Amino acid sequence: MTPTVQAVRKALPWVVSIGTTQQIIQVNDPFSLFFTDFFCQPNRVLTQYSPLGSGVILDASGLVVTNYHVVRRASSIQVQLWDGTSLVARMVGYDIPNDLCLLQLEGVEKPLAPAEFAAVQDLYLGETVIAIGNPFGLGQSVSTGVLSALNRSFREGDVAFEELLQTDAAINPGNSGGPLVNLDGQVVGINQAIRADAQGIGFAIPLSHIEGFLSYWLKPSHFSDAYLGMDPAAILDDGDGQEGLPLPELLPGSPLQKAGLAQGDRILAVNGKPVRRALDWGRETWSVRAGESLTLETSRGSRTVVAEPMPDELLVRTRLGLEVTDLTDALDSALGLPQGERGAVITRILPDVPGGAQAAQWRQLLRRGDIVLKFADQESPAMADLARLLRDTSAGQQQYVVFYSSAVKMPVEVARFVLH
Question: 244: Cβ–Cβ under 8 A, 6 or more apart, which residues?
Answer without folding.
Answer: 266, 267, 268, 275, 276, 298, 299
